[in-house]
Amino acid sequence: MDVDGAGFAGLGERDPVVSTLQNRFPGLRPVLFFTPYEAAAWATVGHRIRMTQAAAVKQRLAAELGEHGAFPAPDRLAELDGLQRGLTERKVEQLRVLGAATVDGQLSRDRLRAMTREDALGTFSACLASAPSPPSSSSSAEPAIPMRYRSTSSASPAPPAPPTTSPTTPTSSRLPNVGGPTAPGSRCSSAAGSKRRPARSPAEPNKRRER
Questions:
Q1: pTM given for the model
Q2: Three-state DSSP class for residue 198
């Protein structure tokens, strides 16, 4: 909050994108935090969750641990213990380390401004990485293996099922010749079992037409 914002208006005169935003939202300015500690705490709370969820967690911390609605002081977060609604165990440990580091002066505004940008970001990263990892409740449990890949120790594995084969269908089948060469009432006849009618000569007159 101690950064002079007088140059923000002049930035809109040089940048057309910023000028459009200034005209669309008059009076608004970039978001600033009171201290680097609060900025780091907000980044920790809002990591990998929705902004609406992070805002609700921050508001609850301010109501339960802060004074007059303000974000909790570093010494309050340094004593943070137990599970917190909306926060994982890892985030609780990181907030506790941030509070303790701020009380010790490691995250003071003057100290960070004396560093380069890379060194200041490295200080925050090292501080968050130093947070102890919560004990895992599933360290002694057996690894999560899908049930279809697990084998029982009491029963022997079942033998593989024989490959299923479909019966081969004959390409051609012969039906029995019922009734000898020619079956009674059948339209099909063989050459040996039927008598052919003599072929009509073209010159033979049509008797039906004559009648």
A1: 0.54
A2: coil
